[in-house]
Amino acid sequence: MHAKNVAVCVLLAFALSACVVPHHSVVIANPPGGVPVDADGVPVHASGPMTDTHYTVVRGDTLYSIAFRAGVDFRDLAHWNRIPAPYVIHPGRRLRITPPPHVAGVPSRPVFHTVNPPVHHVPAPSVPEPHHPAQVASAMSTTVPVAGESTPPDRAPAPASAVPSAPSRTRDGVTWRWPADGPLVDKFNVHDAIPGIEIAGKAGEPVRAAASGVVVYSGNGLVGYGELIIIKHNDTYLSAYGHNRKRLVHEGERVRAGQVIARMGSSGAPRNELEFQVRRKGKPVDPEHFLPPR
């Protein structure tokens, strides 16, 4: 009986250890320590205490995930808190998420590093230099390909044949298209906890980039979004794609409008659907004001 109990304990320990999924961060360095997780064991970031004016950093946070939760522009957050490149933050630091009284505006300098020009260049969509992607767990630091420079071989855009034509609409210099083919089942409400639109569909159906840009987030560390992808289109606009079953693109990857970036799923949701958001300078806006009429 004693040997049987030992065997059960060993199997249980092995099963628990198999549930640990490694994550990476590209911007933040943290001291050793545990990463907060939810009831399913998924790392939770930007989950620290937040008031109307301040946020307290917890392990695994990045400036980008905090800005996304607070609904502010990443550059503003760095400026308000005088955080220089490479934008390292540490647990316990209290960040201001509203402008200080003496701050009149955002500095004109870019917030992210640029990479050295590569030897070969390829045409790229007219997207300004991307934000430095900031995401999920353990300590790591890198830079992001700049729009207009060649994409590394393992991050090459999908071939043109994989991007079908579709109705589009151009607004503020960005050409938008619908990110999924299913019916719209929930419209935008700025007062929702996750303000966006919901597009129904079947598990595994393609989720496409609504506009060309750079992936600045690909992970599952923001509560309520499940498997999430965020694309930066220019200095003003980004789009977010939540509840995916599988993410197909990586942080720093340039994508074209219509490129398949994920497979539809129900992560963080009770049904298969795409949670789609458009944010203007960090603030959620109604995606239907940008998407073409159906």
Annotation field: number of helices: 3
Largest sheet properties: 10 strands, antiparallel
Mean pLDDT: 73
- Give the amount of beta strand, in percent: 15-25%
Number of beta strands: 14
Q: Using the CA coordinates, give the radius of gyration.
A: 20 Å
| Element order: H for helix, E for strand | HEHHEEEEEEEEEEEEE
Which of globular, elongated, flat, extended, rod-shaped describes the shape?
Answer: globular
The share of residues in helices is: 10-25%
Low-confidence stretches: 8-38, 105-122, 124-161
Q: Terminal Cα separation, in Å?
A: 67 Å
Briefly note the structural class of the backbone: alpha+beta
3D structure, described in words:
- This protein has 294 residues and is α+β, with helices and mostly antiparallel strands.
- The protein has helices spanning 2-18, 63-70, 74-80, and strands spanning 54-56, 94-96, 169-171, 174-176, 184-186, 197-200, 206-208, 213-219, 227-232, 237-247, 254-255, 260-264, 273-280, 283-285.
- The strands form three sheets. Strands 5, 6, 7, 8, 9, 10, 11, 12, 13 and 14 form a ten-stranded antiparallel beta sheet that branches. A two-stranded antiparallel sheet has the order 1-2. It has a two-stranded antiparallel sheet with strand order 3-4.
- Strand 3 and strand 4 form a beta hairpin.
- It is globular and about 45 Å long.
- The protein starts with a helix and ends in a 9-residue tail after the last strand.
- The model is unreliable at 8-38, 105-122 and 124-161 (pLDDT under 50).
